[in-house]
């Protein structure tokens, strides 16, 4: 009961999780908005909250947002977020047959099972990794960060060149201002505002929220009210026999989603489609998938919701976010002067347990909110963007200004909103930019400490430290071998297409 003492002493913590889950689902149902914008908008609010309340609010939004996009994917064949696209393959045919209640019920139950399973796996993995990470020195942390950057640049969905350009741009932003090591100004260009550096909060609001608003101004199409399909009855959940028949699919999708979520830059979208592909291998009747069966909903939804726990593993244990959403969670902790890592389990163990419990509760609240409020939540889809857009833009401006009461931060937000739009337009890596600006200072400090400690015998130390050597080898493999395999597979596909 001691681990629940914080929630008993402060019931507002429960309210934060519930409110976060509600608004996460709400924003998740709006195509193109999603949990990233919701978390970006909520980020400035966490500054005035305690670390526990702030992180729980964002955790609720994170988990709720991942699930929320499945509603529109099933009902309208319009996924609220890319990670929910796989759910529409079988969800929409079921809705067309008048089985929308059953399809959404399957999405809810699989999302909750996948989310809770990932938290249990996260608890086990975090304790193991944190103990191993106690042996890390500056060399291990430096090479680990480089390895994370390499995964994002190589496997993050963009070209490797564009991925590295995005990361280097983020690192450049991180070094603007007064050097923490030498105390000298860098790239301040005589501006007193830039002497203190570029605040990453307005940058995040700009690249995630403002850029999406700019993008939707030119592409948004208001859904016709004739397409509205309300949930008129209580959700119909799969019965125990159906769940038992799909136990392998749900179990494997949850493990797969947790593992893929733990890899920096991979994310819920890849986990979702991988879970759907896996369902065809594990299914007794693979020919039915795509024609409207709950198996095709539960596999991707269990996988993408399981990625939430997976992406928290490197964040809590190593201080490296596994996704753009956890990068925002990291920035929230840093706003309160907290730096995740192995020492986090000794200095802030109560907060670690709060995160564990908060993620389980977020999934419980998803079930409760979906059961009682889905019909009302879906009505937000029919708010014209001409009304919703200015409201969201006003929240962005207020949030950026309120952090330091500087209009300069608002201009930073607007500038990076345009930068984010250009990056999306030309398929550059926004998560690369985000991780570059957030991890840049840490990377520089570890490099400087490594240089002072091992200046004369760097190679000797590298080959005598197995963890560092492993990270170096993994980095070379990902940087060199993976792109070569990608090119070879593309050539094979091109040759096959030419034959046909």
Average per-residue pLDDT, rounded, comes to 81
The whole-angstrom Rg is 23 Å
> Could you tell me the number of beta strands?
2
Residue stretches low in confidence (pLDDT < 50, at least 5 long) are 221-230
The H/E string reads: HHHHHHHHEEHHHHHHHHHHHHHH
**What is the terminal separation in angstroms?**
65 Å
The structure class reads: mainly alpha
Query: How much strand content do the residues show?
Result: under 5%
- What is the strand arrangement across the widest sheet? 1-2
Question: Please, what is the oligomeric state?
Answer: single chain
- What fraction, in percent, of the residue positions are helical? over 70%
Q: What is the approximate shape?
A: globular
What does this structure look like?
- The structure is a single chain.
- With 500 residues, the protein is mainly α.
- It has a domain at 2-137 and 200-404.
- The protein is 74% helix and 1% strand.
- It is built from 22 helices and 2 strands.
- The chain has helices at 5-9, 12-28, 34-42, 51-76, 88-96, 100-133, 138-155, 160-175, 192-195, 200-219, 240-245, 247-262, 267-282, 295-318, 324-335, 344-347, 349-377, 385-404, 407-425, 430-454, 458-464, 466-499; strands at residues 177-178, 185-186.
- Strands 1-2 form a two-stranded antiparallel sheet.
- A hairpin with a 6-residue loop joins strand 1 and strand 2.
- Helix 4 packs antiparallel against helix 15 (324-335) and helix 15 packs across helix 20 (430-454).
- It is globular, with a radius of gyration of 23 Å.
């Amino acid at each position: 009961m001691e681990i629940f003492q914080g929630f008993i002493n402060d019931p507002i913590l429960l309210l934060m999780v519930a409110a976060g889950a509600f608004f996460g689902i709400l924003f998740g149902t709006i195509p193109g908005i999603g949990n990233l914008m919701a978390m970006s908008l909520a980020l400035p609010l966490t500054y005035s909250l305690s670390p526990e309340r702030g992180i729980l609010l964002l955790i609720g939004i994170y988990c709720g947002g991942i699930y929320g996009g499945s509603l529109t994917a099933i009902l309208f064949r319009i996924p609220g977020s890319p990670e929910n696209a796989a759910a529409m393959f079988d969800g929409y045919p079921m809705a067309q047959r008048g089985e929308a209640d059953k399809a959404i019920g399957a999405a809810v139950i699989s999302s909750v099972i996948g989310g809770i399973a990932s938290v249990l796996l996260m608890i086990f993995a975090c304790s193991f990794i944190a103990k191993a990470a106690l042996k890390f020195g500056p060399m291990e942390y430096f090479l680990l960060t480089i390895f994370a950057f390499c995964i994002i640049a190589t496997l993050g969905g963009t070209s490797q060149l564009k991925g590295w350009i995005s990361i280097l741009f983020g690192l450049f932003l991180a070094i603007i201002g007064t050097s923490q090591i030498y105390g000298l100004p860098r790239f301040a260009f005589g501006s007193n505002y830039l002497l203190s550096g570029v605040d990453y909060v307005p940058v995040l609001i700009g690249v995630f929220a403002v850029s999406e608003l700019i993008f939707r101004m030119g592409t948004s199409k208001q859904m016709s009210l004739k397409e509205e399909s309300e949930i008129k009855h209580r959700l119909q959940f799969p019965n125990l026999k159906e769940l038992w028949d799909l136990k392998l699919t749900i179990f494997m999708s949850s493990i797969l989603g947790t593992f893929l979520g733990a890899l920096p830059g991979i994310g819920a979208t890849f986990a979702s489609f991988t879970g759907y592909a896996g369902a065809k291998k594990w299914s007794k009747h693979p020919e039915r998938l795509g024609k409207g069966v709950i198996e095709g909903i539960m596999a991707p939804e269990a996988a993408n919701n399981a990625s939430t726990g997976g992406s928290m593993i490197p964040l809590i244990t190593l201080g490296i976010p596994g996704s753009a959403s956890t990068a925002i969670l990291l920035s929230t902790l840093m706003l309160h002067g907290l730096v995740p890592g192995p020492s986090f389990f000794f200095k802030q163990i109560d907060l670690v347990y709060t995160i564990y419990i908060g993620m389980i509760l977020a999934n419980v609240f998803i079930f409760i909110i979906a059961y009682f409020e889905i019909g009302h939540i879906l009505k937000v889809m029919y708010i014209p963007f001409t009304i919703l857009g200015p409201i969201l833009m006003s929240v962005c401006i207020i949030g950026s200004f309120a952090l330091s009461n500087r209009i300069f931060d608002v201009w930073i937000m607007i500038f990076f909103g345009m930068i984010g739009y250009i990056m999306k337009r030309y398929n550059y890596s926004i998560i690369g930019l985000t991780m570059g600006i957030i991890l840049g200072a840490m990377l520089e400090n570890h490099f400087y400490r490594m240089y002072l400690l091992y200046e004369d015998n760097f190679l000797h130390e590298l080959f005598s430290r197995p963890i560092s050597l492993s990270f170096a080898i993994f980095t070379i493999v990902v940087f060199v071998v993976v792109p070569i395999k990608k090119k070879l597979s593309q050539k094979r596909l091109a040759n096959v297409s030419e034959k046909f």
